[in-house]
Structure formats: C-alpha cells, structure tokens
Design brief:
The chain is of the alpha+beta class. Helix content is 29%, strand content 17%. It has helices at residues 12-17, 62-83, 129-142; strands at residues 25-28, 32-36, 46-50, 87-91, 107-112. The structure holds adenosine monophosphate. Adenosine monophosphate (AMP) is lined by residues 12, 21, 23, 37-39, 93, 99-102, 122.
C-alpha cells in the first residue's frame, strides 16, 4: 500500500542511511537511525527513521512500527533530558498533501519551549551543521541505552 507511488531509493534519507549524505547522528542500531533535523522547528528537533525502505505509515509492517515507536520514545526521553523542554510534540506526515516532504517514513521529535514559538514545518533556514553536531552529541549522551 502506498500514498502517491513507489519508494524512491535515492531520497535524501536513503542517502543518509547509506552514508552518502552527512547527518548529525544521535543514535543508530541495526534497524533505526536518528539524527537532528537540518531545518529545526525548535532547539533539539530530532528525526527517527527505520532503515527499511518504506515511504510512510501505511507501508511499514507492524513489527517494524512497534520497534520504531519504542526507539522514538527512548530518543524522546533523551531529548527531554538534554534540552529540558516543557513539552514534546511528535509528528509524522503521510503524503505530500499532508505535508510530507521526504518520502521515507520518519517521526519528528520536536521539543516545545514555554518561552519560544516553534518555527514552521518544512522551514527554509538550514541550521549550522556544527551546532547540529553539538546538539546530537548532547542528546546521544542523555540516552538511556
Ligand atoms: P517531512 O516534511 O515530514 O517529510 O519531514 C522531512 C524533514 O526532513 C523536514 O523537517 C526537513 O527539515 C528534514 N530534512 C530535510 N533534509 C534533511 C537533511 N539532509 N538532514 C536532516 N533533516 C533533513
């Protein structure tokens, strides 16, 4: 099942998984990769993706989805410890009409701060890679592995 066609094997997240594109890595295991969003909606905006080639929620099998959401919770706890936001938003978009821009399944972990408004989804202001690397290291150090 798929919204809007087949999986594109050269999408940007596929390239990140293959090591052909850089990322500010937070966590990696056999099945999952997590890294900082390059256009963060807030400080600490982190993505969690499966390594399997699936476009969206409708394509993923239940076992992989369960593993993915468990890892997402584990990483969200790390984000919470690292940045101490007052809230955390979890988002996941399916199909361009719904706002999806990268067609490889992913969860967004978006810290929400009482004193800071969120930037919009799909922003155009790319974060500084060195700062993203620092943020990734802070979250990685806060993970309960
Ligand atoms: P979505 O719009 O839900 O498909 O989310 C895609 C997310 O990927 C957006 O929040 C983008 O900011 C983010 N993004 C796009 N390219 C990169 C990249 N090279 N590294 C990290 N995040 C990216």
């Amino acid at each position: 099942m798929s919204l809007e066609g087949a999986y594109d094997p050269v999408n940007i997240f596929a390239k990140i998984i293959q090591g052909k594109m850089p990322c500010a890595k937070v966590y990696e295991d056999e099945d999952v990769l997590s890294f900082m969003d390059a256009f963060p909606q807030s400080r600490g905006h982190t993505l969690v993706i499966p390594k399997t080639p699936v476009r969206n929620l409708l394509d993923v099998d239940a076992e992989m989805l369960q593993m993915l959401i468990e890892r997402t919770q584990m990483i969200a706890k790390g984000v919470q410890r690292a940045f101490l936001p007052e809230g955390i938003i979890l988002t996941q978009f399916n199909g361009a009409v719904a706002g999806q821009t990268v067609f490889h399944l992913h969860f967004h972990i978006i810290p929400a701060y009482a004193d800071t408004e969120l930037s919009g989804h799909g922003g155009t202001k790319m974060a500084d890679m060195e700062q993203l690397q620092r943020h990734a290291a802070i979250v990685a150090a806060a993970l309960d592995l």
